[in-house]
Amino acid sequence: MATVGGSDDNEWQKLPPDQKVQHKAWKARMTGYEECIKLFRAQPSDQSPEFNKYVNLMKKFVIDSNENAREKALDAVFAFVEEANVAGKVVNDVASGLIAKCLNSRSKMRERGFEILLMYIEIEKQIEIEDELVKGLENKQPKIVQACLEILRKGLSVFGSKILPIKPFLKQVIPLLDDRDKTVRDESKLLLVEVYKWIGKQTLTPMIQNVKPIQMQELQTEFEKLDLNGADKPRQTRFLRSQQDLKERIEGTAAASSIVVDDTNIEMQEDLDPFEMIEPVNILERLSKDFFEKLESKQWKDRKEVLDDLLTLLTQNPKPKPDSDYSELVKVLKKIITKDSNITVVLVAGKCLTALAKGLRKAFKNYALGTIDVCLDRCREKKTNILEVFREACEAAYPATNLEQLSEIAVVLLAHKTPIVRQSTHQFFTKCFSMATQATLSKKILKIYLVSLIKNTGEADQSVRESAFECLGMLWKCLGEKHILPNLADMDELKLNKIKEYAEKSVLLNLRGEPRSTAPVSMINGASSSPVSPIIIIKQKPTNIQVTVDKHDEEPTQSKPSVVIKKKPIVVIAKPPTPPPPASPTKNELLEDKKKEARPPKTAASITTTAPRVASSRSKPTVANTSTSNIKLTLPKARPATAPPTKSTLSPPTITTTNTQRLVPIVQTSTTKIRAKPPVSTNRRSSFGSTLSSSTSNLQRQSTSTNGSTSSLSSTNTQTSIPCTRPETPTSSTTMKILRSVSNDVISSPNPSTNNGKSRIPIRAIPISSIVKKSLT
User: Fold this and answer.
1) What class does CATH assign to 407-514?
2) The two domains 278-401 and 407-514 share their CATH topology (first three levels equal)
3) C-alpha to C-alpha distance for 36 and 21, rounded to whole angstroms
């Protein structure tokens, strides 16, 4: 046998590669696979006839019984698929063999199998690959199921939902969330997250609503982590053979690569309609047998119950079967909206019509006009929630009709007697006009709407007028000035400005209700100019601004900063001199005033001049002459001094002040002249002076502490030669008046007969509030 084996070795080595790969010996086959790789790479063209010899052998390559030989065979298959034009003829056989024999094998072989399947997608055999992968999801081996899910996820991630459609595999993936194998459950979750990136939550959520709450919570958590406007935004990173020019353009223009890729994805998502992935359901067959009977019940709870069941059924099955007859159902719902007295039942019926119109889309055309007419007429209710429900129902029914068909009911509704109905009609047609074009809104139909809208701009109700202006502004934005302005020739300028204002704010929408975007068209169509055109626009704006600035004179541009610079120091310099007036007394006058104030009194009678200043002494109250500035602090709302005090105020019998003199409290003992005291009574005069200073200081201290409140002070005994060191308590003895001289008033003592050197000096404190009142009067 050894000799035979040796002779066999010599024989297969002489065989060509196409025969070696069919040899019984695995070493011979493995050698043949290696030679095939070199052969396939060396072909000058993908149309080479050498590839035709191996077309029917590819399905045997991927199912080789020996794993070592199969590993080399997969390399040869990858080279064949990448280089040969005829590789697509055996895509089903190669894909099924890979799924059955390679996806559950060693990791290197598994990865090569992924590359072969993705290469088949690149040569535009994605439909066949997707069908085989969906079949692989039913395999009993968890490794194969997990590998099929992973290939679908990777293919969707790199090629996008336009190249690898989601609809064929989505229904088979959702049940795998409950698979007993953890790897299958995890991979199916990752695939649904990738699907969510491409079709969004609004489309995916109704399909996975029957998932267990725990799994739904896990999915929602993963969905919330995604940043679809940033790093997690889906992008196509691998391209078909027919898209290689786009790939080279993106790689060649690195600065504009992200812009082009994003615009390409936008175009792809517009071509993808997630609603088409939902299976239609016959809603009428699932209604209860007594559905129509309960709708005629007199109990509003019965009517609401069956309507809630219908709404739940439409929510769970968002795509009703389009070829069913819904005329009876729509008729009953419209009757409830029109005549039912219970507003709760009416709202549920409106929601049912909305869900039915959204699900049927174009198939709702036979019921659209009647639905819009009934819902807009019911908008006479002023509650916001009611208006929103019926407005949504009208917008859901509009795609099934057109503006030409709506023109008949529009004339009636725009002339409705209820203002809120006209306002709601304006708002509905504003939304319709935002999705219109010149092709869908001809001049003939436009005039029908313009007559009613122009008439409503002169209505008494402000909300009707504003909504009419908004509707006309949308028409202006949609069709342009040249189509609208000739019909507004008789309109005054104020109304025209209002329409133009709304036209500037208006946003045009596509048929899906999303804002229109013309940027992707210009970016994609222009191959070489697309990365340059946005840069040119950005540069032109600042140049235009510079040109307009240069046209003006240079003087105003230079004067503006100079004015600003000058104003700042002027403000700073002007502030400090404002508080003191520039005209002030001279130095000689100020020195004379100081000399006059510093002169000490020669006799006891001289104490009647001015009120003494309170000295700040903690141990003893002492006598000190006060100035008008210190008194001003304790007397609020004092008049400003305009002239210094005169000498006339120093006369002994009477004290008079001028009108311009500051308000100063004055103490006077008597209107009669005080007799001169003998020399022996010097101590008494000193005690008299100290006593007076003590009483005056007490008066001043209490008036400042109480902020002008009424207080009384009593002087110490005048016969004592040493002044009292502790404050005396107020007594009820006669007190001296303290008045503020405003005009030439004479202040005299109430008891002139008792005024002598030995008696106590009566002092009474008058409240400052009464002094101010008297001064004002």
Assistant:
1) mainly alpha
2) yes
3) 9
